[in-house]
User: What shape does this take?
Amino acid sequence: MTENKKQVTAAILGCGSRGALFCELMTKMDGAYRITALCDISDEQIEKTKKLCSVYDAESFTDRDKFFEKKRADVLAIATPDREHVAQAIRALELGYDILLEKPISDSREELSALLEAQKKSGRTVIVCHELRYGKGYMKCEEILRSGRLGRLYAIDASERATYWHWAQAYVRGAGAYLELSHPAILAKCSHDLDLVQNFAGSECESLSSVGGLDFFKEENAPEGSAERCFDCKYVESCPYSAKRIYIDLWHKEGEPEFVWPYNMITLQIPNTEEAIREGLRTGRYGRCAFRCNAEKVDNQMVQMTFKNGVKASLKMVYAAEAGRRFAFYCTGGEMIFDARMGTIEVMPFGEERETIDVKKLTGGAHVGHGGGDKEIIRELYEIVCGEKVAATSLAESVESHLMGIAAEESRALGGALVKVHREA
Ligand SMILES: NC(=O)c1ccc[n+]([C@@H]2O[C@H](COP(=O)([O-])OP(=O)(O)OC[C@H]3O[C@@H](n4cnc5c(N)ncnc54)[C@H](O)[C@@H]3O)[C@@H](O)[C@H]2O)c1
Assistant: This one.
């Protein structure tokens, strides 16, 4: 940290995968942040985070009420399961924290308004963790659209393609499969996409319709004679969802990394070992047959949207061979396609040469952390808390895109009926 730079103190609530990542990114920012407190219902997660980030001086709390007895830092990063977010954020605002809040915020219109009201009353900042807004590829697309080089935007075709095994991990085997703990898939998986589409459209969404279903990850589609757990199953070497193939074979193929996602979801042992991963799969949720988890969420969903300024958009949420969002923009004077998997933006003005932009060059080669967005949002948070910058996206804007997700679920439940995003007063 350069001399005279303010040091921002930070507390982390929820020290799982995302909370530990925030802590790691903060501690790598050259003294800009100091971690003062860690809170998680699991002592093991706190200890893991302390070890990973060498934050041995931070206070530890497994009792949330004790943690919330007073303000313990300038900033609170909330990375707990979805359904905890709003209540915890409101408590934090009452204590005067600025907040980095993991998405999705909520699947309830009432909770969204309550949070917005609490934020306005407190005068504090709430940044919802839409880190893709800070991804260089998305920023470049926005710059080109706003420049007018392609004329006026009239349609967007977006796809969020999760790798097939990632889908199974997050929304079939993981806690994200169940609505008691987490929000519907269109909010859990696509709140970033709804936020981006809304931002690119440059207007509020007026109405939308949506269809989708839980079509594949259910017991009737389990291979014949398959077992409850992968290690007991005759398809352990052939099924694409075999936990052995996903978490052990891939871990070896990737050079046996010390402690990285997704293997750090299976075991908290640092460094990871094959035996620790095997044990995690033998006993934990990720070693279960992907067709026998009683998953509750849809495994595919499509949304069609109309914005107040006339822009139309479609969004597909699917599982695929390889991950990577794809955004096609149709404008009156040209077309542009951002393919995050290929790392390219193709800019195609009508009647002119096409330009291909290599996104890796924009990110300095960064492939991890959502195209560099995770690191950027932590940097941005620092500048905002220091009063050097105003947040690029407001809580009100994040609430708006969450309302789109809520409306999409309402439409899906109605079999694809057209739904207004804002309810009539
Ligand atoms: N921004 C993104 O791109 C992105 C990516 C993945 C996950 N997420 C979101 O981040 C949040 C956390 O996800 P994760 O993958 O880190 O999950 P995780 O399960 O790895 O971590 C959650 C942690 O919260 C703890 N916890 C549970 N209830 C708690 C409570 N009431 N108080 C304190 N701690 C509690 C758990 O013990 C666990 O350590 C979720 O809302 C998820 O949707 C966002």
User: Anything to note?
Assistant: The domain at 8-131 is CATH 3.40.50.720 (Rossmann fold).
